[in-house]
Amino acid sequence: METIERDLNASLVLPSGQLVPLEARLEYHELDPLGVRMDFRVGEGVCRWILSRDLLIEGLSRRAGAGDVKIWPLRRDGEQRLRILLVAPSGEALVDASAVEVTAFLDQTLDRVAKGQEVLEIDALIARILRRKARPM
Q1: Which of 6, 17, 25, 43 is 20 to 30 A from residue 49's alpha carbon, by CA?
Q2: Element (H, E) at 22
């Protein structure tokens, strides 16, 4: 099974509108063909969000999402950008990312697993979860 990964040119958007560079990475795993992992380096740790691949695709062209994740395109300084609003019980974060980089990443995932051809291999997923739970702490 293949994993597609891409570091992302991203920033955290502060309430003042100031942009703070943010280490971000996108990952796509064939075992979870409907989702995209978005990891953010926060201090010594990593904050992980699982986003719908279809939601990311839709958000490149128009406002998309409801609830915990909302995505929309915008143009900033002549560049196509993507805004991703992540809402959790502990607060929310607004992320600004390069639409060109997200598009290139999504194109790679679509080359690997075309839209509408996603098959969730439930047996393989359960086996992976059980292996993870069986590891000693």
Answers
A1: 17
A2: strand 19-29
